[in-house]
Amino acid sequence: MLSYIKGLFQDFATWLYDFLMWWPKTIFASLMEGLAELFVYVMDTLCAQTCSESISAINSGISGIPSNILYFADILHVGTGIGLMLSAYGIRFIIRRIPIIG
Description:
There is one protein chain. This protein is an all-alpha fold. The protein folds into two domains: 1-64; 66-102. The protein contains three helices and no strands.
């Protein structure tokens, strides 16, 4: 009889522990989901206004480059070089964030 009551108490304590541990996880997950949706909404709103203006400015700037400069830029693979430089800077940024290496 005593072991039965002890088992009931342990089952109740396990249930209570699981419930108390589930509650903060649920609140935290809901909070993070709401913040993610807010971030997406803000970025969509900002990008809808400013990205179209930036893209049109970049497009008009590129179309203003003379054809002979574009020819030599293509021969010298300037586009590939810019991509390599940006990826190298990105990798450098990531490596510097590693505590032991950076």
